[in-house]
Structures are given as structure tokens and as C-alpha cells.
Amino acid sequence: MEYGYARVSTKEQNEQRQIIALEEFGLNLRQIFIDKQSGKNFERANYQRLTRRLKEGDTLVVKSIDRLGRNYNEILEQWRIITKEKGAAIVVLDMPLLDTRKNRDLTGTLIADIVLQLLSYVAQTEREFIRQRQAEGIAVAKAQGVRFGRPPLVQPKEFPTVHQAWLKKEISAREAARRLSVTHKTFLRWAHEL
Question: Active site annotated at which positions (predicted)?
């Protein structure tokens, strides 16, 4: 059996380019597993489902090695588990040298191992560069006064009256929050800011 795996890092990203490549390989959507999650590790629901399904003689197809993951050691470990323990093959469409269906002799295995290690290293390095660029961008934006996250809620005009009733123990914090249409936590934060 042949399976495809596609991954993008966020829900906003589009995996269609990978799907098209996998379909051109000959897979249909029922054979393709998709995750919308970071490649920092392999704790991804659909990837786990896929690897549980893989058995000896099956083939796993990915568009590129970084779609499998971006952690050097874990990519190498997953590669070993799939090809050695499970006895399945892996095909990386963007890198024909990483097709374990062929060249299973010693030289072919050596070349595939070297290429795999190099590409895994590049994938992890790129992930680290992405994180560094994000941190730098966030630092610059904060220095320029950009605020991140949701804007703080404005206290309703009824807050002082409700707050006084709560201070006098006439109502509970939960009741105060309900009257102000905010969460219990928000009410308590406002109450303790005074």
C-alpha cells in the first residue's frame, strides 16, 4: 500500500501544492494524511495514525524532507523506524536520491543516509532561522510600540456598582462577572487592579 503525508505549520497555510504533487505520484486523497502543525516534533495526530498503519512493503511518500519534520535527530529516528523496523519504503519527491524502494545495496544506502542527514540538518537549521527571525521581528515591533494579542476589555460603566456589591459580599464574584458579561477571571483581575 502507498500512503502520502503532507504537513503545513499553521491552519492558515495551504497544503494544496503538496497534495497536487502526491496526486501526480498516483495517490488519491484517501491515501494522504495531512497535519497542520509545526514540524518541531512528531507528536502529530495524523502522522501517528499514518505510522501505525504502515507495515512491511508499504511506501510513504512526502514532497520534501522538511514536510516530514524539522528536528534533525527525530527525522533520522523516524526514518530508521519506518525503513528498518517497519520495513516500509520512503520516497521524497523533491530528492530522488531519497527513494528507498531502489538502490538498496550498500552504496545506495550510504548515499541515501548521507543525503538524509544533510537535508535533515538543513530542515532543522531553517526552523531555527525562522524562530530567530520571528523573535527579531517581534522585538522590533514591540520597540516600535506595536501591541500583540487581543486588546484589553474595557470595564463596563456598571463595574463600580457591581464591584461595590461584591466588596460588601452581597454577590459572589461569579455573579458579578455574569452581571458584567465577562468571565470570572476577568472580573477578579479588574477587582484586584484597584
Answer: 9
